[in-house]
Write a structure and sequence with these properties.
about 45% helix; Spore Coat Polysaccharide Biosynthesis Protein SpsA, Chain A; alpha/beta
Amino acid sequence: MSGEVSVVICTYSNERWEDLGAALASLQRQSVPPAEVIVVVDHNPGVLQLVRATHPWVTAVENGASPGLSQARNRGIEEARSRIVAFLDDDAVADEHWIEEVLAPYAAQDVVAVGGAIVPEWPGAMRPSWFPSEFDWVVGCSYRGMPETTSEVRNLIGCNMSFLRSVLVDLGGFQSGIGRVGLTPTGCEETELCVRAGALGKVIYHPAARVSHRVHERRRTIKYFFSRCMGEGTSKAAIAELVGAGSALSTERAYTFRTLPSGVIRHTMASVRGDRSGIVRAAVIPAGLICTSFGYGLAKLVGRVRLAA
């Protein structure tokens, strides 16, 4: 089994150096070792040289295409040689059984992608009192409303996901033109790819394949929260153009009409029981939804204006 998984980590900034070291160290503690670890450095020659000098056991390559996470991941796919390609963020730490658990669902012949739970690691181990867990996707983590047992899903979260390499090659990898570039709070490139992969087989969320994801200080602010919500809406509009609104928004409908109303009630009741921040969290939920919807609508409007021009 140790020859089945290539792990790809994409990085771009000197500020993530300690985080990257922790991510790589977690891969050396795996119960099932990866066949190879590939670090793709996105347009930062200094970091590339540093990785090669201090971690000679990994394959360090540069993203020579346009900057951004999508193209960096595609460079990792090109380099990978194993049956399965797993992606781990450069500021995430994998549980020691991560690869072992990622492999488990692939025993079924119709599985093409597997991802797992992502637990936020807040600065000082303190979640902001105003931050509802229904919106943990804002910081790239599993959120309340996701399945609690192994389940087929529409898409995985990029911090902790894997695919059959043959599927990635057949699909042409991640779509350029969407996804994160540097600190820009957009995303959804993995959603678009998972929608296409789902047409070939099952995309499985397996919570036992766990990683922890560091939440950087700037991401625990209300400013980042709303900018990320806006970016999510913008990205979803781009995906809707590529795969259709039905596929692009299928999960969001259940999230909007079930998870979020339940969250408002839950946090309001917590306030009644004495949690002073409960009512704030209850208010943040519709505010986040409105901001995300505004980003989606604005992007669709801008797209129509461009077409008309």
